[in-house]
Amino acid sequence: MKYLPLLLLFLAVSCVQPTANQKVRYVVIVPKAMQVSQLSVRGSNQPLSWEQDTPLKKLNDSTFYADVVHVTGYTYTEYKFVADGQFERQNQDNRKLTFEADLSTTVQHKFNGK
């Protein structure tokens, strides 16, 4: 009985999933005919959120990007791009990103594309 607190402490510590700083560059290309005033990304793992936009910066006329660091123990995240408050790929599954082992990933998509 005297070892019970030690056992409980060991079990609590051993169940904690290690976290890593997963650096992701989200890149989206919009069609030239599409007029966008604000482009952002939302997602399932902090600092992304499904309720709040993470703005993308303009690289050129049709390419936007955001650099995000996920501090997570998960091996993947889900996300979607948002243009002027409207989610892309409505009525379709979220995009899914499996984090790279080297902790740095770039994803590039066409807005509303695969």
Automatic annotation (TrEMBL):
Signal peptide feature range: 1-20
Domain of life: Bacteria
Annotated keywords: Signal
This protein's record includes keyword Signal: yes
Entry protein name: Uncharacterized protein
